[in-house]
C-alpha cells in the first residue's frame, strides 16, 4: 500500500502543502482560518495520514524519542515491567520510548547514525567515547549504576540493599542459618555478586554464619541437587534467599520433588514479585523493587533535563524496597 503524503492531504483539502504543514504542526504566528484548519485535519484523518517522525526531526531539530539502552542481559518480568511503566510515563509527557538491546559489541554510535533521540538512558554507565559523542550531538545522557549513590547524573539501584532486606525478613522470622541460591547465567553475575554481598554483610551484622551459597540452574535436577546440598550441610540452613523469583521457584520445585515443603522444611524468599509469585506452591515471599517508582523517576529526570532543570531526588532506594510476605517464608 502506498504511503499517504502531505501532498495527498493538500490535494484532498484544496490547499498548499505549506498550509498542510502549518496546520498539522500547529505552527505559531501563522494566520489560517478555523474553517481551513478543520478541512485539512478532516482530510488528513480521512486519508489516514501520519506525519513522518524523521521529517519532523529534520524540520524542528528535535525528536520525541528517548532511547533506552539495555546491556546484554536476559530479559525477564522485572525488566519488562520497568520498560512498560517507563513507556507509559514518557507517553504522558509526549515522548516515545525506543529500546535497544546491546548485543554483539556494535558501538552505540552506529545506532545514533540511524536514530536521533532527545535523550539516552543506560542501565549501566556509558563508555566515555559514547558519552562524548552523544554530548556533541546535543543528546541528553542519563546513565545508571547498580550501587554508587555518589555518582552525579546517575540513577542508582542498591542491589546490596535487596540482599540485606531478604536477610532481615528471614531473621525476623526466626531463621539463624541461611543458604543463598545464586543464578548461573554469566550475564547477571554482577547482580548476583552485589546481592550476595548484601546478604553476607547482613548476616555478619546479625551475628549469623556466612550463607551457604549454591548455584541453581533453571532445571529441576539442579534445584534438587541444591536442596540436597543444603540439607546435608554440617549446619543445614532453615531458609534460603534466592537471587530472584525464577531461582526461588526452581528451589520450591526442588523441595516438592523430594516430598519437602516450604517453609516447614526450608523457607524461601525471592526478588522481583513477578507475575508468577502469587501462584507458586506455596505462594512465594519476595522483594518488590518498586518498578513503577523507578519509571516515574527516570521519566522525570529525562523531562527535567530536557527543560534544563533537575528532577526531584528519589527517596532512598532501601525505602522503596518492600518484602511481599506470602506462605513460602
TrEMBL record:
Annotated HTH lacI-type domain residues: 4-60
PROSITE patterns reported for this sequence: HTH_LACI_2
Keyword Transcription regulation among record annotations: yes
SMART domains for the chain: HTH_LACI
A GO molecular function held by the record: DNA binding
Pfam family, any one: LacI
Keywords: DNA-binding, Transcription, Transcription regulation
Protein name per the record: LacI family DNA-binding transcriptional regulator
Amino acid at each position: 500500500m502506498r504511503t499517504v503524503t502531505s501532498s495527498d492531504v493538500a490535494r484532498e483539502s484544496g490547499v498548499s502543502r505549506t498550509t498542510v504543514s502549518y496546520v498539522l504542526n500547529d505552527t505559531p504566528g501563522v494566520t489560517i482560518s478555523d474553517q481551513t484548519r478543520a478541512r485539512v485535519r478532516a482530510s488528513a484523518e480521512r486519508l489516514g495520514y501520519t506525519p513522518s517522525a524523521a521529517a519532523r526531526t529534520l524540520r524542528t531539530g528535535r525528536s520525541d524519542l528517548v532511547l533506552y539502552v539495555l546491556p546484554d542481559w536476559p530479559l525477564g518480568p522485572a525488566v519488562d515491567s520497568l520498560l512498560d511503566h517507563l513507556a507509559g510515563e514518557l507517553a504522558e509527557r509526549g515522548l516515545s520510548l525506543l529500546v535497544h538491546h546491546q548485543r554483539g559489541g556494535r558501538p552505540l554510535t552506529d545506532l545514533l547514525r540511524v536514530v536521533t533521540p532527545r535523550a539516552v538512558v543506560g542501565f549501566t554507565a556509558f563508555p566515555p567515547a559514547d558519552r562524548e559523542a552523544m554530548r556533541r550531538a546535543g543528546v541528553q545522557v542519563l546513565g545508571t549504576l547498580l550501587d554508587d549513590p555518589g555518582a552525579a547524573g546517575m540513577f542508582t539501584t542498591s542491589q546490596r540493599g535487596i540482599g540485606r532486606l531478604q536477610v532481615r525478613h528471614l531473621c525476623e522470622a526466626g531463621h539463624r542459618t541461611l543458604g543463598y541460591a545464586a543464578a548461573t547465567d554469566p550475564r547477571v553475575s554482577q547482580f548476583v555478586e552485589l546481592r550476595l554481598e548484601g546478604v553476607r554483610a547482613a548476616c555478619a551484622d546479625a551475628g549469623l554464619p556466612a550463607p551457604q551459597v549454591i548455584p541453581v540452574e533453571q532445571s529441576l535436577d539442579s534445584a534438587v541437587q541444591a536442596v540436597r546440598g543444603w540439607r546435608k550441610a554440617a549446619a543445614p540452613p532453615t531458609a534460603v534467599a534466592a537471587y530472584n523469583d525464577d531461582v526461588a521457584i526452581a528451589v520450591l520445585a526442588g523441595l516438592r520433588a523430594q516430598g519437602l515443603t516450604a517453609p516447614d522444611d526450608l523457607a524461601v524468599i525471592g526478588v522481583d514479585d513477578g507475575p508468577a509469585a502469587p501462584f507458586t506452591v506455596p505462594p512465594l515471599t519476595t522483594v518488590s523493587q518498586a518498578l513503577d517508582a523507578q519509571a516515574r523517576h527516570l521519566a522525570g529526570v529525562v523531562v527535567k533535563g530536557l527543560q534544563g532543570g533537575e528532577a526531584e531526588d528519589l527517596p532512598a532506594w532501601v525505602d522503596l524496597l518492600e518484602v511481599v510476605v506470602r506462605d513460602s517464608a
